[in-house]
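Subgroup meeting minutes
Present: P.N., E.W., G.H.
Scribe: E.W.

1. P.N. recapped why we're keeping a running log of single-chain structure predictions: easier to compare across weeks, and new members can see raw inputs and outputs side by side.
2. G.H. added today's entry (324 aa).
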Amino acid sequence: MRRRQFISLLGGAVAVWPLMARAQQSAIPVVGFLRPTRADESGHLVAALRQGLRESGYPSDKVAVEFRWADGQAARLPKLAAELVALKVAAIVGSVEAVLAAKKATTSIPIVFVTGADPVAAGLVSSINRPGGNMTGVSFYDVPTTGKRLALLRELVPEANVIAVLQDSNFAILQAETREIEAAAGALGQKIVTFKAGSEQEIDATFLTIAKSGAGAILVGAGPFFNGRRNQLVGLAALHALPASYSFAGVVGAGGLMSYGASQIDAYRRAGAYVARILKGEKPGDLPVELPTNYELAINLKTAKALGLSVPPSLIARADEVLQ
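Output recorded in log:
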């Protein structure tokens, strides 16, 4: 073969190779991951999603994940959802605010939500058992546990005449959470004072106000924004020496005093399993929404000691996780 012919053939092979590589890559399904938080706040959730995918037959080399983060700016979610739709991803996974934006952007791409809200009340699906359409998911619905959390906090800090309640002003089901808290406070005879924050700066300022108010403890509300700001919340509670209760699991490991609720990490793992079933051909509308089956109480004794609290043995006995 002449040298010129060889070079010509080689050049053709080089030109074709990127096309072949892209064709091979296109055979790997791409899953969109959309959240209103920042990337560095949600690594544990990404790991849980990948675990669910891996356990269901989709390790990292068999599925790609395309991430979109709103960095705490919920107004960006519609644009980010549209980007994932334009990429023609095989499915979209996200929190309640994220998937509501995705729902408006597509009626054909499967959507798997992970939410602490009531999926029906939040307008995600019309039925738990038969969601219909292009959406299903996993709920770690924790609003009904808000009253229980207030009772547990009162048990831990009985001398707190006033308990401050900090809520996310942007939480999709804020009113439902408020009703639960007020009903529980009335039943317990506990005086509460409610504060709201919807940004990092507002959280800082609100904690300072709560500390000056004389409240003896703080009940931190639910929602993805607060979950994403767990380190900030725990740090401020320690700074102002405020005993605090949270709904999201894992916060006790980060130094939080107490948490009670369903595991969000487990919910994302189960969402990964649902995505795998969809990738294998099942329709999201035929998959019933998975609800939490158990709630866990966790207590950090080291944090309690730093706050000068003596944790009742009866409370320790009921805890699922106790950190020394």
